[in-house]
Amino acid sequence: MALYFQRKAPEVSSIFGLMGDPALYKVVQTVLGLPASYSNTNIDTQAAFIRSRIEVTDFGSPAKLDAFITRFTARWQAANGSGMQSAPVVGLSRSMLTSFDNSLLLSMQLLRGVNR
């Protein structure tokens, strides 16, 4: 959706142009934090609210368009997850590493050589 918005939004000349394209409107709803049910509100009320928050001509500026897409991406990922399962991160602190006995480290090294 972000790539589509990036390509199409600069061509839109009005709030109604954003609202008339379901994918563009979904991006706008996400950025503004509007629920899907907001689409059931009077169309003029929706347009007035969006107009108070978004300046359509800003999408002609690459920097402003990128900032808007960044906001969309952040909100989308926060609401829907990134789609990737993350593995738990396990690390050893410096104090834990220094508490290993040298004989243990030598034994581990010898075992590694035997298993090859």
Describe this entry's structure for a reader:
By secondary structure, the chain is mainly α. 62% of the residues lie in helices and 0% in strands. The chain has seven helices and no strands. The chain is elongated and about 75 Å long. The model is unreliable at 85-97 (pLDDT under 50).
Question: How is this fold's topology laid out?
Answer:
Blueprint lengths: L1 H7 L6 H6 L1 H11 L10 H11 L8 H19 L13 H5 L3 H13 L2
Helix pairs in contact: 3-5
Multimerization status? single chain
SSE order, as H and E? Answer: HHHHHHH
Average pLDDT reading: 82
Helical percentage = 55-70%
Question: Roughly how many Å apart are the termini?
Answer: 50 Å
Low-confidence stretches: 85-97
Radius of gyration over all CA atoms, rounded: 26 Å
Q: Give the count of helical stretches.
A: 7
Q: Structural class of the secondary structure composition?
A: mainly alpha
Strand content: under 5%
Strand count, sense and closure of the main sheet? none
Shape call: elongated
Please report the total strand number as a whole number.
0
Short précis:
This protein has 116 residues and is mainly alpha-helical. The chain has helices at residues 2-8, 15-20, 22-32, 43-53, 62-80, 94-98, 102-114. Helices cover 62% and strands 0% of the residues.
